Amino acid sequence: MPEKDITSLRSALEYLKQEEGELLVTDAEIDPYLELTGIQKSFEAGPTLLFENVKGYPNARLTTNLFASEARIAKLFDVEDPSKLKFKIANAINNPLPPKVVEDAPCQEVVITKDIDVWPIVPMIQHTVSDPGRTLGGGNTLVTGKYFWGGTHISYNRMNFRDNKDFASFQISPGSHTDMVATEWYKKGPIPMTINMGVPPACTMMAGSGFMYTILPKGCDELGVAGGIQGSPIEIVKCKTVDAYAIAQAEIVIEGYLDTTQKVWESPLAEKEQKQGVFPFHPEWSGYMGKAYRTYKFQVTAITHRKDKPIYYPLAVHSYDDHNIDCKVREAAFYELAERTVPGLVIDTHIPLGMTDWGGVIYQVRKRRKRDDGWQKNILSAACSLSQGLRLAIAVDEDVDIYNAEDVLWALSTRVDGDKDIQLVATGGMGQTFQPAERSAAAPGAQWVRSESRYAGGIAIDATVPFEFKWAYERAGYPVDKVDLRKWFQEKDIKQALDSQHPYAKWLAATGI
Given this chain, do its domains 9-321 and 342-472 carry the same CATH topology? Predict the structure, then answer.
């Protein structure tokens, strides 16, 4: 059995092949048009999928769902309990391992600088029937050096090549790190960057970690954080055609530059009608269908890739796969925010799928003394203010299971005093452009565009009990530890009964609450 190696996507997949139930491999032909996301959705929260036979792409493979299982993520990063991964990530944020520059890299085994055509190399997929075609949503944008204030930045940015061979639209979320880069270098010349596909798992996770820039500010070393999570430096290599770096262990790399002097449309229909934010384009993290905009142009200068069947990793947005990619670092950043505000008060954080990737967070608080009361409200307010567009932040006590929505709802229903425990934070501030609720404040019949986003404010709910009255909130504890079910029932009957329990019932039964 090979040793575990997570310094590349393909070595991580080789490791998962040895782990029962973690990887499904198929030689049956898959069509990049609609089939991948349909299959992935059918395996929500299930195994990693590897497709060895891609229609129209004899020298390419597709994979997805690597991050769909929290238990698998914990296994990859050597964390015994999935809920503890955030603490490893928080440690990496504070102790990054800077990337290592190498001379030779697998991602540059094949180099194309002439007659560039992205389409025959990258098996881009169509996500939904509503999409205007196949798009590139699985690339990790890397900006380094002076173009990111001396640091390294990695992110996801959706792209559409439409019928073009060597240039694409390049969507940037307002307020994001990439937006800061584009603003700083706006019309000052081309901004060199790379689009890296099939990267080490730690890089994939960092690419989803947006909008917590108090903890991950501009100029920080995001690849260094990825290295800290991985346990070894991320290797990078100098590009062949632009002043930038690529992730050495990537499967495919597109070299090029962002041109802020030109804009192109994301979809033919939007261009024809000359309307932004109206026509369907690429699903969003919030679970709604995205809309097409007019965006900056990305010009390709080279394509490099591994020689042997490079792997492209697209993903269904608003899936468990996407959610875990986007939220594991965010959970750590929210925890770190609390630690820097009042060390030791917050003991855990969680972002369930129902809160969507950037929409919410739950804090678990352990008050140690009376004067801790009130700090939880400061933390909730800070979370809503500092994470752009955060819509819901909740604080609960240590006796509440933050990984179970029903227990959180129970706390909300029994511990919240509506007149003092609910805050509306950052009203009128900046929201999320790709969240329909932020755009719906536009006047009836108006065209939805980015400048019309309205943020009604984040809802901060304190569902903790006052420290001096904790005695009044004692949860009833039933004597499950006092009985041995085998005295009355056979082992097989006990197992059958317990296996049939709903997850919340299992927790209630195990704790006696």
Answer: no
Q: DSSP code of 221?
A: B
Q: Are 233 and 277 in contact (CB under 8 A)?
A: no
Beta bridge partners of 365: 346, 397
Fold of 342-472: UbiD C-terminal domain-like (3.40.1670)
What is the token pair recorded at 323?
């959610």
pLDDT in tens, 56-72: 999 999 999 999 999 99
Contact status, residue 234 vs residue 226, Cβ threshold 8 Å: yes
Dihedral sign, Cα of residue 396, residue 400, residue 401, residue 405? negative
User: Residues of the chain with pLDDT > 70: what percent?
Assistant: 95
H-assigned helices in 365-488: 375-386, 405-415, 436-439
For the record, the structure tokens of 129 come out as: 């029937």
Nearest to 177 by CA among 132, 139, 207: 207
> What one-character DSSP code corresponds to residue 490?
-
**Domains of the chain, residue spans:** 9-321, 342-472, 480-511
Residues 6+ apart with CB under 8 A from 462: 376, 377, 380, 395, 416, 421, 422, 423
Longest dimension (CA), the chain: 79
Domain with residues 9-321, CATH architecture: Roll (2.30)
SS3 string of 15-39?
A: HHHCCCCCEEEECCCECCECHHHHH
* pTM for the model: 0.94
